[in-house]
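task queued by scheduler; priority normal; single chain, no ligands, no partner chains; default sampling; output format set to structure tokens
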Amino acid sequence: MTHFPRIVLAGLSGGSGKTFVSVGLCRALSRRGLKVAPFKKGPDYIDASWLSHAALRTACNLDPFLLPRETITALFQEKAARADISVIEGNRGLFDGKDREGTCSTAELARQLEAPVILVLDATKMTRTAAAVVAGCRAFEPGLNLAGVILNRTAGERHRHILKDCIEGLAGVPVLGSLPKMSDNPIPERHMGLVSDQEHAGREAALDAIAEIVERWVDVDRVVDAARCVSEPAPAGPVPWPKPVVATEGTQDGPVIGYVFDAALWFYYPENLEALERAGAQLVKLSLLSDEPWPELHGLYLGGGFPETQAAGLAANAAVREHVRGLAASGLPIYAECGGFMYLCEGLHLNQDGRDQWHALAGVFPISTRLCARPQGLGYVEAQVELENPFHPLGAHITGHEFHYSACTEPSPPADMPPLALKMLRGRGMINGRDGLLLDRTFAAYSHIHALGTPHWAPAFVRAAQSFRSGR
């Protein structure tokens, strides 16, 4: 049985510095020669991608809303078994969940994994009050193992000394590090959080710089000791990966499903891609920005991302836009999420420097999207499937999440609007409480799903791709 050394890094709110510490710790530990398994709690692609590069291993998302409890435990143990230490970055505040009870919070995940928690605390203009905050967190919910505190944005040596004395003496929790105020963040932020690692030219230098800051100001050895001072968990069952779909008669290999992975679209849970492969698909990586020709496809997966930052390049590549429109017209099964949905629209309206700009896109759907200044959809979603489609069975209950600054515009006349397959039970969706545009075999939604929380999706996608290949 593996011991699974593990630690959860949490904050009091977003912006506390937990991502900075998590990324720096992962890179610092990997530079010491340790095999680090990175995890991100909650529905997040950007932080998870930075963690992956920092740890030199693909990060895994653990979300109590999207995944059943037994799946989370199994997935964690499967990934952690290959590592020397697991670093789990929380999201939002330590006790923040989807309701008053804190359901699906970072604290809940820590208890489920029997993992000690290190609280990253923004200590700006605080001294003794910090001890009260830490003491409150320690006692707020039973079963939480608060193993230490890492202070952030401290003002100087005297400030750090007072904070450490108060927190350890009055709250009884060890201070494992104290980061100073920093004028420049090696990883800048923008409207959806950190700048994408796909667009950060100095990514490796930034990660090494963060690691050096963490090594200097955090007692990394004591953090490792806290991660190793854990009980041995009960063995979990296997991860419920899909079984292979029966191959179409007369073929030996599975259908080819392309997925776009470039600077415009790259939001994919690794488990979604793995589930498609385990269900029998052959995956090929594609780009909407490159002139490189695409192979023959039997299905196409368009994830989320930042089409707004690459709008000019997407519009300029008319050949790929026309090719995608032709694939949709041919009946190819296409599944698109958020940014992928935006690409399938007629175009994107942007306002830059006070000027309206229009960028033509694939034109599969007779609608457009507009980037707004504020989020148009944010948080967990639940939906009911009300129309037959290739990917979700009629009547199925879908859980997922949405995070988008764009809004879609209804066509004129409104009768031209394609049908929407999903009735939103929680969340906003596209229009009038609905999501999931459906046109022939193309399905596009603002909602993101996780394949292990929506187990019918990958096998259905592969079956649809096989059917398309057989039909040709």
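post-processing summary
- The chain has 13 helices and 24 strands.
- The domain at 256-471 is CATH 3.40.50.880 (Rossmann fold).
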